[in-house]
Here is the input.
Amino acid sequence: YGVVQRPTHRNTSWDMAKFEVCAHRFADLSEYGHGVALLNDCKYGYATRGGAMGLSLLRAPKEPDAHCDMGHHSFRYAVFPHTGAFGDGGVVREAYQFNVPLVQLPVDATVAADAAGVMPFFAVAGAPNVVLDAVKRAEDNGSQVVVRLYEAFGGHARARLSTRLRVASAQLTNILEEPTATVKLAAAPGGATAIELEFRPFEIKTVKFSLKA
Here is the structure.
């Protein structure tokens, strides 16, 4: 979760030692007005020097794993040019969509018509820098639903999380899903339920919903 800004030069011995750094889903090289991101779905080693970016696709060390990266590999990567700086260029969204592509399934026309306009089970509004990252069952109670969100750009945010599930109560929890605070529920359009969440830079929030019987 979050991003780290790094120099593109090697002025010090520390910079030289970091010829490659780890990253998940993307690396972005931007200046005022425009930039370019290098996306991938399973590789984690990036190197940037000046205006050139590299992505390590295979490795061949003999220690500690003598068989590292041997065998067949399947991976995807893409170049994503964008206008605006990193936060305005849609890089995080594009990287997510690249890693979790839309699944298309043939359905009957009546099913498609019924689905049109249906509100998703969960939606985030009011803060483009807040990402809804995970939805899962609670570890200790199968009738509860856990939603995890985070602030992606390094700024403060106030987001509205809404759901069309029949919610009885909502709690903030720590990463172990242990309750830390109760969240006030509010009515939302379309019969949905919503909560307001405030984020600090790169903050992760976990919300546990208890559903009505």
Remarks:
- The longest helix spans residues 91-99.
- The longest strand covers residues 130-137.
- The chain has three helices and 15 strands.
- The mean pLDDT is 89.
